[in-house]
Write a structure and sequence with these properties.
mainly beta; 7-stranded mixed beta sheet; 1 helix; 7 strands
Length: 98
């Protein structure tokens, strides 16, 4: 299964930009940034290199119109994973000991 795990959001962008770790890599990139802008309504996919710099060449899968980050990533065949901020607690039999 191909997965795109949300790793960060970029509030300083013009629009809603989110970075995802791609497994397996997409178009040679381990990470991509998906940027949704409202004027014009478009959602772009950009590669992020190993130093964290964005490659400003649009990747295949970028779309015009109203699209969510999830729709864009699912459209290129990836399942979106959003890590929980607190991992689930494990239950151990010794937890119930007096």
């Amino acid at each position: 299964m191909k997965t795109a795990t949300h790793v960060s959001s970029s509030p300083d962008w013009d629009g809603d930009a989110r970075t995802y770790k791609m497994d397996p890599p997409y178009e040679g990139f381990d990470q991509v940034t998906v940027s949704k802008i409202s004027h014009p309504k478009e959602t772009y996919i950009y590669g992020v290199d190993s130093s964290g710099e964005i490659d400003w060449d649009e990747l295949p899968g970028s779309r015009k119109g109203t699209w969510t980050h999830t729709q864009i990533l699912e459209g290129i065949g990836y399942q979106v994973i959003t890590p929980t901020s607190h991992p689930p607690k494990s239950h151990h039999p010794t937890d119930d000991a007096p």
